[in-house]
Amino acid sequence: MHAQQGGALWFIVPQFVGFLIYITTAVAETNRAPFDLVEAETELVGGFHTEYSGLRFGLFFIAEYLNMITVSCLATLLFLGGWSSLFALDMIPGIVWFLAKAGLFLFFYMWLRATLPRLRYDRLMAFGWKVLLPVATINLIVTAAIVAVRAS
Question: Is residue 137, in this structure, part of any structural domain at all?
Fold first, then answer.
């Protein structure tokens, strides 16, 4: 976080591919559309949507949203400079900047759920193994090479 402060470049710029991979895997980890294959609540008559009611169902729901908030806060810290301001606007407190950036990710989650259809399980697995894993591996190798060249 401190490497992104003081007019330094936020890590979303040099690691845009890593940012896209993080966002994609974060959406999949939080079981949001289009990756919500665990429970298709509008299509299935089973699972925790029918088994639990009242407080227990509310706890499941709150846990999903807390997971989204956690992932949004991590994305803000890792890629968007955390509480540092944009364009040296230091008159706005850091907590406001942090909450605005995390809120932007939460808005993205809501917008994504309302926009994209659910993926089939085989397409999701093919996307993960044939696209995300090779791109993430190549990104790691290129980043390590650039860091090694700069260090020497």
Answer: no
CA proximity to 108, closest of 18, 4, 19, 13:
19
pLDDT more than 70, % of the chain: 89
Rounded Cα distance between 4 and 8, Å, is 5
Within a domain: residue 136?
Answer: no
Domain range for 61: 2-119
Distance of CA 63 to the CA centre of its chain: 16
Q: Is residue 128 included in any domain, yes or no?
A: no
35 falls within a domain: yes
Q: What is the pLDDT of residues 32-72, one digit of tens each?
A: 888 876 555 556 565 666 677 788 888 888 998 999 999 99
HEC profile for the chain? CHHHCCCCCCCCCCCHHHHHHHHHHHHHHCCCCCCCCCCCCCCCCCCHHHHCCCHHHHHHHHHHHHHHHHHHHHHHHHHCCCCCCCCCCCCCCHHHHHHHHHHHHHHHHHHHHHHCCCCCHHHHHHHHHHHHHHHHHHHHHHHHHHHHHHHC
Which residues, at least 6 apart from 21, have a Cβ–Cβ distance to it below 8 Å?
A: 132, 135, 136, 139
